[in-house]
Amino acid sequence: MSTQLDAPNPETLETRQVDQQLREVEDRLVARYANHADLTEEVVRGAVAELRDRYSIARVRSFLPIIIERAARAKFDG
After folding, report:
1. What burial class does residue 29 get, using C-beta atoms within 10 Å of its C-beta: 0-12 exposed, 13-18 middle, 19+ buried?
2. What does the DSSP assignment read for the chain?
3. pLDDT at position 78
4. What does the alpha-carbon distance between residue 44 and residue 23 come to, in Å, rounded to a whole number?
5. pLDDT tens-digit profile of 8-51?
6. For residue 15, what pLDDT is reported?
């Protein structure tokens, strides 16, 4: 009986990459709006979480970080 090495799951790899990119988006947005009294870190991270939830059913996830970042900027710069 031969054993096979587990191949990396591309979906899991993509999910981890998107998650990392979304953390970077949050950090960029927090830094960008740090001087806005009404846009605290909590508010910015909450908005990103809401947008992430909105797009959670997206079939193609690789573009989510840029879509979410643009949507958040539009909301904050509004």
Report:
1. buried
2. ----PPPP-HHHHHHHHHHHHHHHHHHHHHHHTTT-TTS-HHHHHHHHHHHHHHTTT-S--TTHHHHHHHHHHHHHH-
3. 84
4. 12
5. 666 688 889 999 999 999 999 999 999 999 999 999 999 999 99
6. 87
* Residues 39, 26 contacting (CB under 8 angstroms): no
Using one digit for the tens of pLDDT, what is the confidence trace for 46-72?
999 999 999 989 888 899 999 999 999
* Joined tokens for residue 50: 């809401």
Which residue in the block uniquely carries the two structure tokens 């947008």? 51
Contact at 8 Å (CB) between 55 and 67?
yes
How many CA atoms within 13 Å lie on the side-chain side of 41?
4
